[in-house]
Amino acid sequence: MEIKLYRKYKDIYKDEAGFIESHFLNSSEISKNWFLFLEETLNDYEPIYLVGKKNGEILYFSTGYIIRKLDVGTFMSGSMKKAIDSLNKVHLNPLKFKVVFITNPLSSFKGIHGKNDLFLDEFIVSCRNVIYDQIKCDSVFVSNVYDELLNQKLKEKNFVRIPFYPNTVLNTEYNTFDDYLQSLKKKKRWDVRNKQKILQEYGAEIYICNCDEIKDYSKIYQLYNNTALRNDAVPSIINYSEESFSNWINMNDCYRWLIIEFEGEIIAFALLVEDNDHLIFKHVGMDYKHSTSCFAYFNLYYVSIDYAINNGFKKMYCGPTTYDTKKSIGCQLIDTNSFISIRNKFMGKFVVRVLTKVFN
User: What is the C-alpha separation between 61 and 101, in angstroms, rounded?
Assistant: First the structure.
C-alpha cells in the first residue's frame, strides 16, 4: 500500500483533500476546520496526516502528531513520579522518547479512518514503517481505540494494548429535563435541584453563547489552565497558547460556550460541541473560588444535559475525568484502549510494563 505523509493539512494535494473531506471528515471534531484550527492555535504542534492508497484509490486516512521528547513520567503519580522527577533534575530520565501519536488531536475520537476494513492491517503496517523511516521516532502510540476490529488488527500487528482512561457517555433521549431527572434515584434528584437552587441564590448567571460572542478569551484561557493544572485532570501532551487562544472566535456555531458569571466576571465555563446526533462536553475551566461555592461544575453538566435534550441529541460524551460525579448523574463508562509500538524491543518491554502499571 502506498502511504503519503503530510506535515500540514494544506500540503495535501487538492484532489486528495477533496476526497478525504467528502468520505472521512464527517463531523465537527473530524473536519478540515478543526485540523487548521489546531495548526494555528497549539504550542509547538507538529501534526501529521497519512493517506493510504491502493491502485490509485484512497482507502484510508489517519491523523496524529509528533512529540519530540515525551516524558512517560507525565502519566505517573506517587513514588514512581517522584523517582522520575529526581532523574529529570540530573538529566538522566531514560523515559523520554520521540513519539508519534495516531489519534484525532484534542478529542476523544480515533485517528484512523477507512472506506472499508479489507486492507486495514496492511495500512497499519505501512503507516508504522513510513513513520519509523521518515520521522525517525522511537515509538508509535495509537490512542482512543474503541471498536473491536481495530483493537484486533493492532494486536495482530504486534502493537501492545494498554488500557487507557475510559470515556463517559450519557443517554439524553428524553422529552424534558424533568424526564431525565426521573431516571435518577430520589436522593440524587433532590441533590440536582438543590445545587441548581444554590447557584441561583448565589447570584450567578448561566448562559450559552457562540464563539464570536465571547468578549474576553484571556479570561477563558486562565480558567482553562486553572483546571488543566489540577492533579485530577488527565495529562495534556499538546496545549493551547495564550497568544492564539482567541482563535476560537473564528470557529463555527457547532462550538458553543456555556458560561457562568458572578458579578460580571466569568467564574466557570464549558465548551459544548454539536457533533451529528451527539453533544460533546469538551473543555472546562473554573476559578475554584466562587465556582466552588455555587457548585458551578455540577451546574455546567445540568445545563448541558438540558441543552442536549431540548436540541434532540441522543447522547452526550462527558470525557475522561471525575468518574464518580459523572456516574452519579447517569453516565456509563466506555472502555478505551491505546496501543504502542516501540522500535527498541528491550526498552519496549520496560516501557510497556511501566505504562500498564500506571493505567491499571
Answer: 14
State CA 132 to chain mean position distance.
Answer: 25
Q: Based on the domain organization, do 160 and 177 belong to the same domain?
A: no
Grid coordinates of 234: 488527565
Reported pTM: 0.87
Residue 313's nearest CA partner among 283, 360, 269, 273 is 273
Per residue in 295-330, pLDDT tens?
999 999 999 999 999 999 999 999 888 899 999 999
Is residue 8 domain-shared with residue 153, that is, in the same domain? yes
Summarised one tens digit per residue, pLDDT across range 92-117 is: 344 567 889 999 999 888 999 998 88
Output the CA angle 97-102-105, nearest 5 degrees.
100
User: Alpha helices, DSSP H only, in the chain?
Assistant: 14-23, 32-41, 78-89, 120-130, 148-156, 177-182, 186-202, 217-228, 290-293, 296-310, 323-328, 345-359
How far is residue 220's CA from residue 302's CA, in Å, rounded to a whole number?
A: 20
CB 5 within 8 A of CB 65: no
**Which residue has 493539512 as its cell numbers?**
9
324 lies in the same domain as 342: no
Range of the domain at 76: 2-164+337-359
